[in-house]
Amino acid sequence: MCSTLIKSPESTNKQNNLKQLFTHLFLIISLVGQAQPGSLHSDSLLQFVDWHENHRTGYALAPGENSILTKKAEVILGQLDSFYYYRVENGKRSYWTNKTIIEADTIFHLFFEMDKPDYGTEVYSKAIGKLLKNINQRGQTTLEYQYSNDWKLDSTTSKLGGSVYVVYEGNKEYWRLRENDQLLTYQEFDQAGHIVQIRNHRGLAEDGSEWREINFEWKNGQLVKMDTRTVKKGESRPGVENTFERDKNDLLQNVVYYDFDRNKRKFLVKGFGGPIKYKTSKNGQGQTVVTRTYQGEPIVYTFDERGNWVSIVGKNVEEHRALFYKNK
Question: What is the pLDDT of residues 132-163, one digit of tens each?
Fold first, then answer.
């Protein structure tokens, strides 16, 4: 799957250590069904492709925000009855399929995994786009999300009795396990609501003295730098660092990748990152196609006549959606 977070051979082990953190941060399936350009205007489509590809790294999502809707809410919800999504892997339709049904006040996201006897439903609030609960195939609620009056996540409760609660201090959030107050995740945002730091304490020292960290730097609403580091026994060790260069239209044009040696000295990793190119065309069905090429690998987005994506195809990804509009 194409991504703007570049991995070099030297940093593979470091990145593997961060898998839990990135898994905790975002849910790929949720991203697949969300924001649309809602227009066939070239600038709108290019901005969407850029935004969608960048979100594959998860850097703009925070724990608990794995919802179908985000600040870039899908503008076509009022026109849709439902949509069906599937992936293709190794030339075959993936084991994971899902269908999203949109009703007056609720979005039902149904998923099914063919390689195991498991399927279920995620229930969202249409008005605010927040995940409310997960329901298994027996109709049992396995996980519930509780929110405050202003729709800030207050806590989560699982069927097994585990509960996580959130403490807010200004632009800071502390996610703790209710049974023993153990700190699981720390988040900090700037005044504009952009996330600037995430610390993952899961599976580390229970006293909160160890964590895996991601830092974000923003300029004019765009991410310009991201770095990772690990803190253990009072020592902070850098992981990797990416810088992002954009054009006058705020489209990502170049990614520069840095790593660190054992003495914490930063060095440029050559052969990684590089320029990003965009091309707009039409296919045989008259649909608009946007091709984004990064590190020599193109990824092709195809949009329907209403400006909503119906397929995303690249070397490591193939995704399709069937959109069912109202009164059609």
Answer: 888 887 888 888 988 888 888 899 888 877 88
Which amino acid type is present at position 58?
G
Model confidence over 25-59: pLDDT tens digits? 322 223 333 345 556 677 778 887 887 776 654 43
Q: What is the distance, to the nearest Å, from the Cα of residue 26 to the centroid of all Cα atoms in its chain?
A: 5
What is the pTM assigned to this prediction? Answer: 0.69
Residue 74 contacts residue 317 (beta carbons within 8 Å):
no
* φ, ψ of residue 90 in degrees (nearest 5): 55, 40
Instruction: Provide the H-helix boundaries in the chain.
Output: 12-17, 19-25, 28-32, 42-55
15: its two tokens: 């990145």
What value does the mean pLDDT of the chain take? Answer: 75
What residue spans of 183-288 are helical by DSSP H? none
- Show me where the domains of the chain are located: 9-325
Strands 153-158 and 131-136: unpaired
DSSP sequence for 105-145: SEEEEEEEETTTTEEEEEEEETTT--EEEEEETTS-EEEEE
Determine contact, residues 291/281, Cβ cutoff 8 Å: yes
Whether 75 contacts 307, CB under 8 Å:
no
pLDDT of residue 76: 44
Q: What is the DSSP letter of 1?
A: -
CA pseudo-torsion sign 156, 157, 162, 168: positive
R_g of the chain computed on alpha carbons: 20
The CA distance from 184 to 164, in Å, is 9
CB 288, CB 301: distance < 8 Å? no
Tokens in use for 247?
Answer: 């054009």
